[in-house]
Fold this protein.
Amino acid sequence: MTGGVAPSTLAPGRIAVRRSSPGSWQPWLWIAPAIAVLLAIFGYSIVALFGESLTFQGDWVGLENFGLIFSDPLFTTGLLHNGLLLLAVPVLAAFATFFAVLLFETKRGLGFYRAVVFMPYVLAVPVVAVVFGQLLQRNGPINEALRSAGLSAIALDWLGDPNVALWTMAGVIMWKEVGFGVVLILARMLTVSTEMYEAAKLDGAGFWRTHWSITLPEIRPILGFYVVTEAITMVSWVFNYVYVLTNGQGGPGNATVVSELYIYRNAFQYQQPELAAAAAVILFLGTMLFVIVFVRMQRRSLRVSS
């Protein structure tokens, strides 16, 4: 019998080579320009940032710039304040969860209330800072209202008292950011099967028991994402609040100085870009730490769910 060799008669040691179909590499071809742009912009900027942090006026100095910034009390104070602002994140997550649950239990007007809660988040940070800067003055509307209500004891100098200013700023940030968490958590709650809640009611579970046993486990991945996002905000996105509320001074004294303001001062006011780059590297590494934590949390939750 003549003809080609049947596939079953090939030598055992020979392996058939499988050609990749065009569809396997076409998606990478389409996104290649976007990847190239990202690498050109962000990749080059990060490399340049690290390079500048290790030099002084073009000369290699190694880690000397890092030693200088860590010996500067103002920088360590800024890092401390960023760390203190992180304490507001669990409170922010608790408020977001609480309001999301309340909205979930709302039978009428859900769309309206959700829009009202989310509205502060879409406002520009300078607008929010300017408005609260006027409201929270010593003789501003908030203190005048408190005095009129006989609550003069808590009519504090919200932005002028060094012991209060940082927490006042944390409150302003929480007011703006809570709506983002409410919308995220509520969106997840609305996708949970209603049969689970109905079964809980039939079993006699009350309000708190139902949401503790059903809602909290269901929203845990979204809540973790929100916590990490807000932690990054408290570390590296509070410059606008500080700059507008304190006229760029971080006052009173150094009560509201954060690492971003320290970077800004060294880069543009003191003309010390190398020190600013070193501080920015520390801030970048701190932010990446939160990103790594979030990725590991997501992987762990996927393993548990699978």
About this structure: The longest strand covers residues 55-56. The chain has two domains: 26-53, 64-305. Strands lie at 55-56, 59-60. The two ends are 54 Å apart (CA to CA).
